[in-house]
Amino acid sequence: MLPLQAAHASKDASGDTPSPEVIALQRQMITLDTHLDTPESVDRPGWSIMDQHDVRQDYTQLDLPRMKEGAFDGGFWAIYTPQGALDPASYEKVRDFAVMRGMSIRLMVASHPDQFELALKADDAARINAEGKHIVYLSIENAYPLGEDVSLLRLFYKMGVRETGFAHFMNNQFADSSTDPNGPKWHGLSPLGLELLAEANKLGMIIDGSHSSDEVLDQLIAKSTTPVVLSHSGCKAVYDHPRNVDDNRLRALAAKGGVIQINSFGSYLRAIKPNPERAAAYKALFAEMRGSDGLTAQQREALMAKRREIDAKYPETDRPTFDDFMKHLLHALEVVGPDHVGIGMDWDGGGGVAGLEDVSGLPKITAALLKAGYSKEDVAKIWGGNVLRVMREVEAAADPKEAQ
Fold this sequence. Notes:
Layout: H1 4-8, H2 20-28, E1 32-36, H3 39-42, H4 64-69, E2 74-80, H5 88-111, E3 116-118, H6 124-130, E4 134-141, H7 152-159, E5 161-164, H8 191-203, E6 206-208, H9 214-223, E7 228-235, E8 244-245, H10 247-255, E9 259-262, H11 266-269, H12 276-289, H13 297-313, H14 322-336, E10 341-343, H15 363-371, H16 376-397
Parallel strand pairs: 1-2, 2-4, 3-4, 4-5, 5-6, 6-7, 7-8, 7-9, 9-10
Helix pairs in contact: 12-13
């Protein structure tokens, strides 16, 4: 094992190129991220996880070459669906989309068995890592595709899903969102949401409180039979945003064995000075991109070219930085300690900051943690040990008759 003092000798913790010693240490650990939106990229025509991409060209942040460069082992690949109407026709449509997205993730794994493997248990991570392959757990971001039939969760469990969230940007049939402009609908979990929580606990799925309201988080912590995870969240004490969590709730989460995974979504890290021209241009572009799943590779590249033109004409003048991200990570560590903090950067879902644009730069976080005084053992917990510990507890508490 790498001597700890060698890692501490690095002077690159502010976001510069990490030293060889830090990179070597990174490769010794199992490095996991609990929220990867890369499956959206995997479904793009002409895009391959096996090829090297450039975040400045196609805006993607994760592929196999960059995973290897950043000593990134994998994590929870999200089945994400945006919130839509709460009616039977919409439920049916989004259910089918979510099933197919899950199949796309599995197809990625099956197409490259020498590089990726589907993980179903906590102990799978170490075995897959030892075999030199990358770890693919499945998760659900937004339970909306389940409609009003919580038994559908079993279908996704059979598919390999081992973590489920409840809501996203808006309230849904299960729970209130932290960011719905209309305010709370249920003041926590709905009756159907309580059923979903019970079903997830029985099956042995990790309970994810990210995007849900504070009231939902309170109820998840109180009512879940297993520890709760925030797969990609931040600290309200650093920046008062609805997506972030206050210190008292962090302590309550930790008291039940839970973990907050810190994200790098810029507008959740700190206030950003308005850039009206850029915002208007992006609003128009995203309106054009909406419903673009059926585009050809050429059509999508034309949209990416428009996006690059916007970035050149209206550059970001106040982009959150690596240091802004680290403020949240270090604050959470100060409040609840290294047994209850992890990392969920929101790659390919809006994450990334100046100084840490994609997964190739992950050792910068390790260097910063070591400089802050955390031990190699602490860093290993933060990078994967904590969420795997929760997963083992979740597995142990599952109903053996249900989790078949």
